[in-house]
Structures are given as structure tokens and as C-alpha cells.
């Protein structure tokens, strides 16, 4: 591979500079993305391999990032599981048949990715062909808790009352649901690797809604099983948000890399995770709206906390925010490359 800096960092190997890619690096802050979005629905973009390929490659050409991430959505496995999904205009995803009873759980099926999400696998193959081994391609999935919360709540949630009611009130049923979801995600992620993904990121975007003890008792074993189900094939990034108070527990699920958000210092997080593991993060996405000198200052601060130690991948603490100036994003990537190279 021409530029395998990202993969080397995942493995904790020495690199000439800190690699950088950005969550939601293909998205609504880019004119090229919005030009396509005006012609197609979000779901059409995800399920049309040629469009997903084009959107995946847009930031690669524009930003000079060290890895691409396939354009998709964490909810794509749901239809194959028997769950009806819509992306309502300006409202995000809506689950039409939320899972809340034993009957609902029993009706779920484990997907067959080649039958249920062939468009995603085709998109991965197209992107790999177009990249021609210039940089790695990242595949991804939700973590079991985040996907479970979506299908129980019926969409986005603030308090996760339906999910927590099931978790507290019917723990055996909760674990059966989580086991079913985890089995689907293992199939889903392995199919992406078979199609050509060079690394996998597991997104637990809603894990921060849990207390440390609830995460330990009701979630950790399932995330661990997912990561173990793909470990050893390609590097796995275990990413969560809002979990800085128990990042050591989260890291106990495994993963070659632990992704952290901006609510904890990178050096503190790395110490709690253990320096034998790689770390990814962790600039606040809102910083990209700041003046360039402030962006540079904050990049320097994170790189200083990493201390030039092998195994750091620079990223935001979550996805790029709509309206972020593209020039600032490109400047961020350049700052990371230039400043980290000086330290080596």
C-alpha cells in the first residue's frame, strides 16, 4: 500500500507522522456531497454502490486524509433483521416497528450480508478498486448497545427510557436481544472485511447514556463478543462517546485502537487505556469553526499530549458538524501532518 501510515499506527508501529482521518469526513459540510444529496435521498445514496463510492472518495481527493471510510449508515442491517426503517426528512431515522416485547425479539433474524446488504459490499469493492492501494479503507458498524437503543426507542432518543426499561425490567430478554444483534453485527462486519475493508470501526455513539455499572453488567460482554468476532483479521477501532468516566471499562471490550471523544485529555485517556494499545482522537469538532491559529494551537496541544508515542491516530471526538468550513478541515489535516512530522 502506498500510504499505510494509518494501519501502522493501528498496530502501534513507528510512523513518520501522525495519520489523520475524520468521522463524517464525507458529509453535509461539503458542496460536492450536497450536489449529490439534492438529487437522491440519503437511503438511495447508501444503497447505490456507484454513489456511495463517489461520496466516499470526495474527501480523499479534497483533504489528503490517510484513510477513507465507506459511506454508509449504522442502521443498514435493520431491514434484513426484519425491522422497517425510514429516513424522514429533517427528522432522521424512524423505526416503524420498534422492538419492545418478547414477541418482537423472537421475530428478529440474523442477517445474511450478501443477500441483505449487497450494495454495501459492492460499494466497498468499487472504492477499493478506485483507491488502488493508495490509502486504507475503513468499514464500520454500530456497537450492540447503540443499535439496540435505536430499534427499541424507534429512533433518536434523549433519555433512552424504553431501552432502559427493558434493560432493568427484563434483563434476560435484554441479553437475548443483545445476543441477536451482536450475531448480526459479527456477520455484517466480517462481510465488509471479506469485501476488502482494511480496518473496522465500531461506533458506540450512545454508550454515554449509561452508568459505568450498567455498561459493565448489560453491555460490555456483547461489545466484547463483537470485537472478538472480527479480531485478528484487520485492525478494530473501539469508539464511544460520553464514556470518559469509564473509558477503562470500555477499553476492556478489546480493539486494537480505542477511540476517545474530547471530554477527556488524550494523555489521561491513554494512561487509563494502557500505552500498549493505540488511541484515536480527540479534537472537539466545534474547534473547526474557530480561527486557524486556534485550530493549530489545539492540534499542537493534542499532539503534545500524545508525546510522539507510536499508536496515535488523529481524529475528531465525533463527526464533522454541518456548516464546518471545508478550508478549515483541510488546514487541520495539514497541521496534523506538518506538526507531527517535526516531532519525530
Brief description of this entry?
With 344 residues, the protein is an alpha/beta fold.
Just name the CATH architecture. Answer: Alpha-Beta Barrel
- Which structural class matches the secondary elements? alpha/beta
Oligomeric state as shown: single chain
Task: Please indicate the count of domains.
Answer: 1
Which CATH C-level class is it?
Answer: Alpha Beta
Distance between the termini: 22 Å
How would you characterize the overall build of this protein?
With 344 residues, this protein is of the alpha/beta class. The protein has one domain (5-342): TIM Barrel (Alpha-Beta Barrel). Helices cover 48% and strands 10% of the residues. It contains 17 helices and 9 strands. The chain has helices at residues 5-10, 31-37, 42-47, 49-63, 78-81, 102-106, 113-116, 118-131, 144-153, 161-169, 171-195, 212-218, 220-228, 247-251, 266-273, 292-306, 326-342; strands at 68-69, 85-88, 92-95, 137-142, 199-204, 236-240, 257-259, 278-280, 312-313. The strands form 2 sheets. The protein has a 7-stranded parallel β-sheet. A two-stranded antiparallel ribbon has the order 2-3. Helix 16 (292-306) links the parallel strand 8 and strand 9. Helix 10 packs across helix 11, helix 11 runs parallel beside helix 13 and helix 16 (292-306) packs parallel to helix 17 (326-342). The longest helix is centred in the middle third of the chain and has 25 residues, at 171-195. The chain is globular.
Amino acid at each position: 500500500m502506498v500510504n499505510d501510515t494509518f494501519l501502522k499506527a493501528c498496530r502501534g508501529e513507528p510512523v513518520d507522522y501522525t495519520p489523520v482521518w475524520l468521522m463524517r469526513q464525507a458529509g453535509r459540510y461539503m458542496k460536492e456531497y450536497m450536489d449529490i444529496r439534492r438529487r437522491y435521498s440519503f437511503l438511495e445514496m447508501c444503497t447505490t454502490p456507484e454513489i456511495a463510492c463517489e461520496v466516499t472518495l470526495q474527501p480523499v481527493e479534497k483533504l489528503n486524509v490517510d484513510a477513507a471510510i465507506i459511506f454508509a449508515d449504522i442502521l443498514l442491517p435493520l431491514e434484513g433483521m426484519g425491522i422497517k426503517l425510514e429516513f424522514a426528512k429533517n427528522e432522521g431515522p424512524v423505526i416503524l416497528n420498534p422492538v419492545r416485547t418478547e414477541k418482537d425479539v423472537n421475530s428478529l433474524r440474523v442477517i445474511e450480508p450478501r443477500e441483505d446488504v449487497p450494495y454495501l459490499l459492492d460499494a466497498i469493492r468499487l472504492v477499493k478498486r478506485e483507491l488502488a492501494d493508495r490509502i486504507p479503507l475503513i468499514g464500520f458498524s454500530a456497537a450492540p448497545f447503540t443499535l439496540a437503543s435505536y430499534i427499541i426507542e424507534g429512533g433518536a432518543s434523549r433519555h433512552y427510557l424504553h431501552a432502559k426499561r427493558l434493560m432493568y425490567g427484563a434483563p434476560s430478554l435484554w441479553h437475548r436481544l443483545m445476543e441477536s444483534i451482536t450475531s448480526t453485527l459479527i456477520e455484517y462486519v466480517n462481510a465488509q472485511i471479506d469485501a476488502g475493508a482494511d480496518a473496522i470501526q465500531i461506533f458506540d455513539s450512545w454508550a454515554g447514556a449509561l452508568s459505568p455499572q450498567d455498561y459493565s453488567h448489560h453491555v460490555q460482554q456483547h461489545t466484547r463478543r463483537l470485537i472478538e468476532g472480527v479480531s485478528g483479521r484487520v485492525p478494530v477501532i473501539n469508539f464511544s462517546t460520553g464514556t470518559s468516566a469509564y473509558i477503562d471499562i470500555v477499553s476492556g471490550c478489546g480493539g486494537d485502537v480505542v477511540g476517545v471523544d474530547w471530554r477527556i485529555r488524550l494523555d489521561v485517556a491513554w494512561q487509563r487505556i494502557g500505552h500498549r494499545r493505540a488511541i484515536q482522537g480527540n479534537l472537539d469538532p466545534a474547534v473547526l469553526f474557530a480561527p486557524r491559529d486556534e485550530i493549530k494551537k489545539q492540534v499542537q496541544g493534542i499532539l503534545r499530549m500524545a508525546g510522539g508515542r507510536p499508536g496515535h491516530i488523529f481524529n475528531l471526538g465525533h463527526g464533522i458538524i454541518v456548516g464546518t468550513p471545508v478550508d478549515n478541515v483541510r488546514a487541520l489535516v495539514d497541521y496534523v501532518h506538518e506538526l507531527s512530522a517535526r516531532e519525530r
